[in-house]
């Protein structure tokens, strides 16, 4: 939690604000204290939205609908003032881990727990749908576990059933992997209560197996499988399968209603205040979180200060008046606070300090909200990042999330070294207005571990930006965590492109996305005289990656020559038939867009058949294992990539020498790219610290409480705004980010795509693809 800053109110609607929990595009979330002394989450709408008539109308409708959601298994909106100068709403704290956290930390749930969970969440959906809402984001992270049952949270993207104007066509809303086929198709006309039932089926399959039923990886791939493939229910206990199969029917009309699920699993629903519905390990985790919540920190109970400024104005919400300052509203709040904090008010039991309390609950207390403002995770108090009292410069931390172990450890470690070298050089220069610090965490090549690492960085308020993760799968798993924390995430090696699925404000590409390789192949094919009739092989083992490159390459190649496309099934080991087909078609060149292992097999088969024409592979083949497995057959292969060889590029010579001195080895791929990104972050921080740019602006376009010139206290949001308009020359390429999409801006003058050729058993760096073809 951050202390209140300049511009933060001390009181809103009779609630005393104690600190800032988070901020997003539409509002700020505060920790508040009610008249009865209970802790609440108060969400205050940003001023620019408060003046938007359309937003106010939506806010009124959704708050009114959310207040009608009455279920013991759904978190409610307990207070609101939709007519205030800046509208606000209040929700209670919910103590306990999310289902996602419980499964990752404690393993899958047993049959009884899964069916109990399904019955209770279905009961919550009955209430949601009965209030005229569709939740649209039922997922493990939005289900919190308590001793007496789960709580469905976050109506941030819910919409009223009769309000089709609030939903845009061709925009996917929800979380890939847990949304329905109609959501994946962005078919707004048919998204209704059955969509939530499908999502619940995905959630229950996850709880029973530890994995989503339509796999993981790039969002586009998950959406495709959701629409076209059967769910993977391997490992789901037989007792659960019939109902889950019905929930996961592609046809919304074939799915059961949530009331049917409640009826079928009613016998598993726990009764009473506490029930042993969860396995012991999860129960212990829930109890620890609940105990932390009940052990009030040493903050004195408060009462309303009559002289304190309070937003006023009574506006009907669901047929009743909700006033910021009336005696009736004050009495209602006191009663609500007593209900919300039952067992909390009264003498404060001995417990941890306030700072310790916030640290303990930071991993598991989520503030649920209706009315379109989403959910917010309680963050730890900021660490000491300033030496203001002693006159020392401030220190800002750059996080590195990378695969430091696992299959991709070579690229992950290279990125860590590049960051460490850049930070060391920055700190060694005299006259810097601040110092930098590196904090590196290993996500070990696994999505679940990646989420835990992201959550740790999000909770560490000294971290202003994170470089990584290493792989597309890890990025897809964590980008939502970074969005929620407004923590800038800068990719170096990952290529995933979210723009066709859902925007992610914090995810910034510092390299071309997957399609850039297809563009490079097509560009080379247009210029090279010996390409001729081209065979293009798509590898379903790396499905989406290969498809995206192939589609763009085919479009360009067909402008000049005939193309013979072939798709090989996932897991193919014998490439003799596909190579035979290509050669029978009299191709002059071959393009392969798959994994390094499959590329090695294709290379050996082409060599066996004495094919000597141009052979082109993609970045996955820029791997020493390709050279080792293919042997002499790798000679002559051309490889597209977004990474340089720093030992062969003149602009990177000083960096390469410094890397050798510091680490005793030449830089591996992506070390130089990571080094450049640190420079980008440092320049952005320096611009802000020096009052450069637009110091009063934030990424959402609203004033930042720390944005006055001359104040070197920099927050994540202010840095994000500056990074989204970054343009900086580097040793690898010019780092220019498109402010609208967050993607690297490709031009012919600065493509960010390079070519390598296998020569003498190693990779020889040829240079920028545009420069190479200019010499052909």
Automatic annotation (TrEMBL):
Residues 691-714 are annotated as: Disordered. Residues 695-710 have a biased composition (Low complexity). ATP binds at residue 43. InterPro entries: Kinase-like_dom_sf (IPR011009), Leu-bd (IPR028081), Peripla_BP_I (IPR028082), Prot_kinase_dom (IPR000719), Protein_kinase_ATP_BS (IPR017441), Ser/Thr_kinase_AS (IPR008271). One of its GO terms (molecular function) is kinase activity. Keywords: ATP-binding, Kinase, Nucleotide-binding, Signal, Transferase. SMART domains: S_TKc. Residues 15-278 form the Protein kinase domain. Pfam families: Peripla_BP_6 (PF13458), Pkinase (PF00069). Belongs to the leucine-binding protein family. This is Bifunctional serine/threonine-protein kinase/ABC transporter substrate-binding protein.
